[in-house]
Design a protein that fits this description.
The chain is mainly α. The protein contains 19 helices and 2 strands. It is globular.
């Protein structure tokens, strides 16, 4: 059975609405009953309210969060406060759909586009990484990755669009720093104007975020306990392999040692196959490198070796994109020339989808009735207003009353 020909003959654009619909079905309440999530309110809304447009260039956690800042600024000037969660979530959803559209573009030289596109909405996750502006960082690095596979721009409009995407994504978190060597290598190899401009844009974002991080002196999370490599492997295996391929029951029921072995075996095999591939080696190696960089960066932000391997929610934003990219590598194996490898990869994919299907739609959280409780923000008076996730709230300080 050859899956390639029928898929390859279809337009990738037809799959954009399918991927968008699947994403909406994962977390429908974020769209039909929108609420703010975490720093959406306590940082981005509140600081926009306090200092206005200056908040756009105000670092948080040591670096710029350009897209959440712009969305908060836009919402506060475009609509009544009751509509702000809808604008926040709606734009977060639209930006994610923008990734699907970018992947569908004929300029992006990647195979198996429908499957790569569907990987994002079908990747298991908690509610944290998707459809909220705080964690757009879990999605926007894909714009940087896709640019590495983009054909040269055909006109000034395409070139301006490329640079705009790079700047928006590059200043939305510290990830431009990770991608800078890849863009430098691409510019050196291609020696074209577009590659040089893209490298320059990434270099500017890298310099900006790097200087801010250095000035802030942000320290990594530390603990008095010595590092436990087995703990790192167990958590990585649970989040990257056991959960997406064998379902949540496996994460909760299997011992940590099994998760650690799966991390070494499955992740190691997919990365080894990518860098030694006889087909699609260039794109698969690039994906494998980005996977390793993102995973290392995420793990460096927290002592995950001290986490419970059975916990699937804590810090899920650090594992979401690595899971997506690992699934991309599995998709590549589904079309491997070795029939046994291809069927094994397809079987694992079907198994993962089957075991996770009952949990595909994320359960709805409490409705804190934003429209009924946001009037203090409208009036500029102090209030505590509950937001998501449970246990978060905005300690709204109010605005100085005009005389």
């Amino acid at each position: 059975m050859n899956l390639s020909p029928p898929i390859a003959t279809r337009s990738a654009w037809r799959w954009v609405p399918v991927a968008a619909a699947l994403l909406a079905l994962r977390k429908p309440w974020a769209l039909h009953t929108p609420q703010l999530w975490a720093e959406d309110g306590s940082i981005f809304l509140q600081q926009d309210d306090e200092i206005g447009s200056r908040a756009i260039i105000t670092p948080y956690n040591g670096y710029l969060h350009l897209l959440p800042r712009l969305i908060a600024w836009l919402a506060s000037r475009a609509a009544d406060v009751a509509w702000w969660p809808a604008i926040y979530n709606g734009l977060a959803f639209a930006i994610t759909v923008g990734v699907f559209a970018r992947l569908a573009s004929a300029r992006i030289a990647l195979p198996h586009k429908p499957w790569l596109m569907l990987a994002l909405p079908l990747t298991v996750s908690s509610a944290e990484p998707i459809i909220n502006v705080t964690n757009l960082q879990s999605v926007t690095p894909l714009f940087l990755l896709l640019q590495l596979f983009a054909a040269p721009a055909a006109n000034a409009g395409q070139r301006a669009g490329d640079l705009t995407l790079l700047v928006l994504a590059g200043l939305n978190g510290p990830f431009a720093i990770l991608f800078a060597p890849l863009f430098a290598w691409r510019a050196w190899r291609n020696r074209g104007a577009d590659s040089a401009l893209a490298c320059g844009a990434i270099a500017a974002c890298t310099t900006t975020q790097g200087l801010l991080l250095a000035r802030a002196g942000v320290a990594l999370h530390t603990a008095s306990e010595p590092l436990n490599p087995d703990g790192f492997l167990a958590v990585a295996g649970a989040r990257l392999v056991s959960w997406p391929l064998f379902g949540p029951a496996a994460v909760r029921g299997w011992p940590a040692s099994v998760h650690a072995v799966l991390a070494l075996a499955v992740v190691g095999a997919l990365v080894w196959r990518a860098v030694n591939a006889t087909h699609g080696r260039a794109w698969r190696t690039t994906v494998a490198i980005v996977f390793a960089l993102l995973l290392t960066a995420g793990l460096s932000r927290a002592r995950t070796d001290l986490w419970s391997a059975a916990d699937m929610a804590n810090g899920d934003r650090y594992f979401f994109l690595p899971r997506v990219l690992l699934l991309w590598l599995l998709v590549a194996e589904c079309f491997a020339p070795e029939r046994a490898v291809a069927w094994l990869a397809r079987g694992l994919g079907v198994l993962g989808l089957t075991l996770n299907a009952p949990h595909c739609m994320l359960p709805a959280p409490p409705d804190y009735r934003w429209a009924e409780h946001c009037d203090p923000i409208r009036r500029g008076v102090r209030a505590d207003i509950k937001t998501l996730p449970e246990g978060w709230w905005i300690e709204y300080q109010g605005r100085p009353q005009k005389k």
